[in-house]
Amino acid sequence: MKKILILNGPNLNLLGKREPEIYGSQTFEDYLLLLRKAFPEVSIDYFQSNHEGSLVDKIHEVGFDVEYLGIVLNAGAYTHTSIALHDAIAGVKTPVVEVHISNVHAREHFRHHSYISPKAAGIIVGCGLMGYDLAVQFLLKR
Ligand code: DQA
């Protein structure tokens, strides 16, 4: 069975209790159960880290594995700061879809720039957790 990795960056472990007016009140673990049920044809792996280097390591680990259709990456605040993540995505073969739960363009100016976007196969912004569904659909169909 083909695989997709969902890779969440810093503070996304707090989903459900972190700023629920922006990010909703569902935990990612609860959402992931529904997502896996919705896409039984693919094995959805999940990894979250608050550490930039661990995210880079994970991209390297999966990025040359032909079993993976792609990586769905919400790099959290590292989106706006990390040249290392930009380079990691540029350096691997697996396509990366950038997802943001909130509409970053309707928020603070420092969230408007992404180091991920120039290397992303697609970008989904502001659709809530449904953005992960859309990214999985895109990777399955592209
Ligand atoms: C986020 C948006 C980022 O600006 C923020 O730092 C996050 C979450 C989102 O999913 O909306 O941690 O990536």
Task: Summarize it.
The chain has 142 residues and is of the alpha/beta class. It has a single domain (3-141), classed as 3-Layer(aba) Sandwich (Rossmann fold). The protein is built from five helices and five strands.
Would you write up a description of this structure?
The protein is built from five helices and five strands, in the order βααβαβαββα. The protein is of the alpha/beta class and 142 residues long. Strands 2-1-3-4-5 form a five-stranded parallel β-sheet, sandwiched between helices. The longest helix has 12 residues, at 130-141. The two termini are 17 Å apart. The model has no long low-confidence stretch (mean pLDDT 97). Bound molecules: 1,3,4-trihydroxy-5-OXO-cyclohexanecarboxylic acid. 1,3,4-trihydroxy-5-OXO-cyclohexanecarboxylic acid is lined by residues 11, 74, 76-77, 79, 100-102, 104, 111.
